[in-house]
What does this fold into?
Amino acid sequence: MAMDNNELNLAEVIEKYPDVPRFIILKLDLQLRGVKLTDRALEAVQDDRYRHSGISLYGTEADKASPKAAPGPAILRDGTTVVYTPGNESEDSYVIDNVDGKFLILDGEAQIEEVDFSPRPAYYGKKTSRGVPMESVANARPQRLDITPYRYCHFWDTGHQCKYCGFFTDLREQRQVGGAQLIKVLDPEDAYETVKEALKEPGRFSQIYLTAGTDYGGPKPFDNEVGRYIEVLQAIGRNFKSRRFPSQLMAPAYSKAQLRRLHDETGLVSYCPDIEVLDESLFKWICPGKEKWFGRDYWVRGALDAVDIFGWGNVYSNIVAGVETAQPHGFKAIDEALKSNLEGCEFFARHGVQVLAVVWKPWKSSAFRGQKQPPLEYYVRLIKGFHDIKRAYGLTPDSDDYKHCGNHGDSDLARLD
It folds into this structure.
């Protein structure tokens, strides 16, 4: 995308869109430009109140960003959560410093806002009966447990990984990161014990979320992956008295028979097959692995079929917002990209599927490294449009709201409804 010298900065966007809370606009800009901590701030988050894990669940270059533990998600003064990953900063990134015991967001010399971080959960630092660090089993967001049963994506084996992706790039076997052990395949008992321990912290967690790298192996494609998810969900479910428990699975599009198994054999509540790119031709270019297994129509049908099983509004999909402008084949004009995304969101909403947006960050280990992102104003217009469409169809992002995920500006807007 060509450089536009008329792009609005943060203050100008906030002034132009007074109906969008300034904290949500700031969140989008933090995700868009990236965040880096000063040495003083990094030292401050080693305190037991803040210290999260020295690892991520994804196997990215962020795992190697610092030998010190990273903090959890940032929390703005109105409670807005900002999920960001260290290790992909640029010269234009915002800076978080610690001054007189307070964390401050800086843009150059200008102080933008005060910020805090999600507190360290009580189960961190403990191990399962097999000796596996619990923080490597489940990563904590403010109110959600993130569990990754399989930490490798086989799209990378054949060079068919999504072109924006920098995840699951180097974990073919288990390895040590930050003093903790990352294991390629999660043992279901480790998941059970970790969730059991995490639930001892009163009121802390209200959802369990699973995702993993893609594994298309099995008697039928994706059977191995579906079976693995079922085993882990069944183990987690032993912690609950009720048949179903607050949970979401972000995974590939599956056949209706596989979806029926996931629903009937586990306590899973919501399902999220990520379409990633709504434009048909760009989907084929940007997501070659998903195109190979088994094309855009299959991924769309997987989401629509899931509504018959999980119910209206309990099926989600995500787009990597902005990647549709990647060059040389992406949209050249912002209005064209916006039109494509809003039309796609409306199509899914008519069928009871909620499409959400995450901000595209060109990972250094991805094929799109160095690409220019769309301007902040584009993201504000996009989340406004997505929110208005879902509200018109009576869809509320209960499984992906600001409390559970914190990664979507459009679901943050649902707080205003």
